[in-house]
Amino acid sequence: MSKPSRFVLPHTGHSLVPGKRTRPPKGFKLEVTLVLAPSKAIPDFAAGAPIPTDLAQFDVTPAAVGLVTAFAVSNRLTVDSCDPSRRLVRLSGTLFRMSVAFDTTVKLYTRGRRTFVAHTDPISLPEELDGVVIAVLGLDGTATAAHTTLGVGNVPRQSAVPKAPSARSVTPMTPLALATGVTADADGAETDIDEGGRVTRITMDDFESRVLTNYAVPRIGQIYNFPEGTGKGVVIGIIALSGGYIEADLKAYFSSLGLSVPTIVNLNENQPNQPNNEINDYQVSQTLQILGALVPDATLQVYNMNGSLSVDALHQAFSTAIYDDSTPHIIVNPWVFVENPVGLEGIGITGPGVDALESVFQMAVMRGITLISSSGSTGALYPVAISTGDTPSGSGMAGVNLPYPYYPASSAYHV
């Protein structure tokens, strides 16, 4: 009996997984998201086509849902949810059943404190789902999102007003150092290169006074000609994949500006505000503080996730925010991946993940939502560890800064 024909989802395989295999706990179940194609092609309004007003015309058809459901049942997977408007089907099952269904070997790995699933062989699906399923999210956790706060270090809890990073945490490769002509030696002393190319030594106090000038957020708004107004009636969604905020910190910060704490609504009832990681808490708090200082009367809706930094988690967060009953006017996202145009292993987001997120971003634009994502605190440079096999440390890895665009900021559907 011949094997049923299948098609391969491009850019879903790996030659290696950066982690150590581990045994899954008893009863371990994996959840995945199948992102389905719209029932008809969405016009390329990023290139100037008119933005459609009838969004229901792009809902997934019952026939497409039936094909996916039949696929799940035949592979003993559970259909947890199906949303035709969001074009999503959530499935769950054991690692073995997932491996059989998607014709790849899905295993559990650990790397540091992270536990994630991954596979090496590409994902494939029955040919009847070709043109129906555009991405399968949740089978590959090798790539993780990061926020782009620069030089945070260890931020103490109950820190009141966040301070600028220490001068010693600014590396020679940051745009801040490059723009001022100031770099830091390995011993922490600073060197200044003047317009004539002469190199002189400067003190730490000089460095801090020239580089680490603090501006209150309202003043930054004035410098950049931020529009006048308080944001009354505006709803701003904030993506919080991990971390949270401490109310006492926000109260102290806004009090220092002579402002009240803005209206903050925590959404996703299963994952309320959960401060759990100083670096991630800093990012969530910083986002709330900046927005609350610029538009103090706006409502800030925080979409809390479960701490996962996967492509699937980012997709779920955006999808939840975009289709929320209290639709935000703006969605702000500080979490990013890097694009990977040259295919380095374990670096950044690949084709299916981009396709899935672009599909959600299209719907956001059609619903009149403005999308804003971080474009990085270090310009276009992204630190990458590359295997060399002959480094002095013997580790076989060397660090290099490569120019990668940050995604989703690079999406045509973001401002």
Q: Share of helix among residues?
A: 10-25%
Rg, nearest Å: 24 Å
Order of strands in the sheet with most strands: 15-16-14-17-19
Separation of the first and last Cα atoms: 53 Å
Which structural class best describes the helix and strand composition?
Answer: alpha+beta
Task: Estimate what percentage of residues fall within beta strands.
Answer: 15-25%
Q: What is the approximate shape?
A: globular
| Uncertain regions spanning at least 5 consecutive residues | 150-200, 387-398
How can the largest sheet be summarized? Answer: 5 strands, parallel
- Mean of pLDDT: 79
Q: What's the total number of strands?
A: 22
What's the number of helices?
9
3D architecture notes:
The protein is an alpha+beta fold. It has nine helices and 22 strands. The protein has helices at 62-74, 95-102, 175-180, 204-211, 217-223, 247-256, 278-294, 311-322, 351-366; strands at residues 6-8, 20-21, 30-36, 78-83, 88-93, 107-111, 114-118, 124-126, 133-137, 146-147, 182-184, 190-193, 199-202, 235-240, 263-267, 299-304, 330-333, 335-338, 370-373, 381-387, 397-403, 406-407. The strands form seven sheets. It has a five-stranded parallel sheet with strand order 15-16-14-17-19, sandwiched between helices. A four-stranded antiparallel sheet has the order 4-5-3-9.
